[in-house]
Specification:
Helices cover about 40% and strands about 25% of the residues. With about 160 residues, it is α/β, with parallel strands linked by helices. It has a domain of about 110 residues: Rossmann fold (3-Layer(aba) Sandwich), CATH 3.40.50. The strands form two sheets. It has a six-stranded parallel β-sheet with strand order 3-2-1-6-7-8, sandwiched between helices. A two-stranded antiparallel sheet has the order 4-5. A hairpin with a 2-residue loop joins strand 4 and strand 5.
């Protein structure tokens, strides 16, 4: 099977930071491949020049990166990667057999439902725990959902 992971990187980063843990991205990429047969893992970011070293590291770990421009609003950066991730998944529809969505954001409910309808839904990998993952995603997952806080030990940065 040719499975893809579409990763909301900001959701992943903030959620793992909130539980005071760190991801070993090389181990995470290997885990995605071994556990779900993910042949291509795509991370979506708002581009910040100051993070270039991190982006380079992620590419070396086997992730493909897609960038959006960043908006600055009231001193905060904002890059709406949700629509970018969704359009990217639709553009690559014929390239994958199953898609795994790495997000806790209910904005991806429609994409998950479309994947299910077309028998391309692998599941949800929620960066947040059961209490904070979108109820919409939990409901549409049909039980095909994994929670990063419960699995972090498999790919945690232990350095």
């Amino acid at each position: 099977m040719n499975n893809y992971a579409f990763i909301d990187s900001q959701n992943l980063k903030k959620s793992v930071h909130a539980i005071d843990r760190k991801i070993d991205y090389k181990r995470f990429r290997l885990w995605l491949n071994r556990k779900y047969g993910v042949t291509r893992a795509i991370m979506y970011f708002g581009y910040l020049r100051s993070q270039q070293k991190h982006y380079d590291h992620l590419e070396k770990c086997g992730f493909d990166l897609v960038f959006r421009d960043v908006e600055y609003h009231q001193g905060k950066t904002k890059a709406n990667v949700d629509i970018c991730l969704t359009i990217s998944a639709m553009d690559q529809w014929n390239d994958f057999d199953r898609a795994w969505l790495v997000t806790s954001d209910g904005d991806f409910f429609d994409l998950a439902e479309r994947l299910k309808r077309d028998d391309k839904f692998g599941g949800i990998i929620s960066p947040q725990d059961r209490n904070y993952c979108s109820a919409l995603l939990r409901r549409c997952s049909g039980g095909r959902i994994a929670y990063v806080p419960e699995l972090i030990g498999k790919f945690e940065d232990r350095s």
